[in-house]
Amino acid sequence: MERKGSSSPETGSTSHGSSGAEFDVFLSFRGPDTHANFTDSLHHALLDEGIRVFIDKKRIDVGEEIGPEIFQAISDLKICIPIFSRGYASGIWCLHEPGHMMERRKTNDLKPWAEVLKEVARVEGWDTKNQGHEELAQLIARNVLVKLKGSYVHISDDLVGIDKSVHEVVDLLNVKSEDIRFIEICRIGGIGKTTLAKVVYHKLSTNIDSCGFISNIREASKGSCLSNLKRHLVFDILGNIGVELSSIDHGINMMKDRFNGKKVLIFLDDVDHRSQFMALAAKAEWFGLGSRIVVTTRDRSVLSGFQDQFEHCLIYEAKELNNLEALQLFSKHAFRSNSPPNALFSLSEEVTVRM
User: What single string gives the DSSP state of each residue in 149-209?
Assistant: First the structure.
């Protein structure tokens, strides 16, 4: 079996010996069947979107086993894409890769190949017979980029008491509606606005093609020009990694020209000045039908006056944890448990009540 790919890490590809930890996507294919056509098209479409691809170009001689780094890469990477061709099953080591993918997907014991292939066949995929290779490769790359965006937003494993708030914000957003909505999540600092926004974004972003999460705008605006934040947003929405913006006005004009036909989901975290919102999402006419703009802020007055720009402008006040939830969160961080040790229970209750 032969695989093709760039050997330089700068191109986003790897050969044997590289760790999969710094990559996003693993491509599995049978070289003689697809490396010069569809695999090559998909590989470069992924790279064009700024996606880091683990693709092994080493020729595997007959009977030679694939090294453990390949299986480690499948375990580590966020997305694995097997490219099935007419001769795919004739390469025994080609079969090991989707088998390992399905093992990771379902976290169970590895099954016989016939059963693995039946399971793979039930997973929805794309057929190269239905459209041109370049067009399909770009479609897949765009879908991969959307799924990766949600995973780029880090969410703590120690979440407590957030499910109800997530449900309420998702209901307010109502992403199936065709109107354009602006949602403001407000309250004092430290109450969990950013965490709430991240969880909602992670929940919704995988189903919307054009989405972006701009973090920590208040701090970022101090050390850099707002045009850098706008460049980040334009890249998230358009996938144009090389975009250059000469000014704020240039960025606004690009958004007007390129965003207004798109349904976008944009989260602007920790906005504390009108100029930040004006530069990034001030008018509904910049965006397509069904778009959602979500802002977290400590001071709702920062955004006063913009409400008339949106058909629906809604405010959500982030809720404090109750005493039981606060105690549980404290215990998760202090004791790696859902509750304090008996000897420290009363003291822990006192600490969380005063926080």
Answer: HHHHS---S---S-HHHHHHHHHHH-TTSSS-EEEEEE-STTSSHHHHHHHHHHHHHTT-S
